[in-house]
Write a structure and sequence with these properties.
By secondary structure, the chain is mainly alpha-helical. Helices cover 64% and strands 0% of the residues.
């Protein structure tokens, strides 16, 4: 792993560690869901209608860990923060491995 890759990895880990801000800030400001993580129903309540694309595709994807939790009945903000961090680290690890593999293919084919 070169110097740039190590810096990128450190940045990704730091970003993963601050992901619980997505829970704390809306809770602190009593804003409901995290920004941009709205259901079609929430969008309808916020703007008065559901855009056609959102209505068409909103039910096509079901997240492996809906609401970033393994137990939807557990509303503890500490547990949710832990799940957010695990989700962030998992996504970052997958992204890092994919980018690493692609960069190795590019370097190998470029020589």
């Amino acid at each position: 792993m070169n110097k740039l890759q190590k810096k990128i990895l450190v940045i990704l880990v730091l970003l993963c560690l601050i992901t619980p801000a997505g829970i704390f800030l809306p809770a602190f400001f009593n804003a409901g869901d995290a920004w941009g993580e709205w259901s079609a129903q929430t969008v309808k309540e916020l703007v008065g209608y559901v855009p056609k694309g959102l209505a068409k595709y909103s039910d096509k994807w079901k997240a492996p860990l809906a609401d970033y939790t393994a137990d939807s009945k557990d509303k503890s903000i500490v547990h949710q923060s832990g799940y957010y961090i695990v989700s962030g680290l998992t996504g970052a690890a997958i992204t890092f491995v994919v980018v690493l593999l692609i960069s190795r293919l590019i370097v190998r084919n470029g020589k």
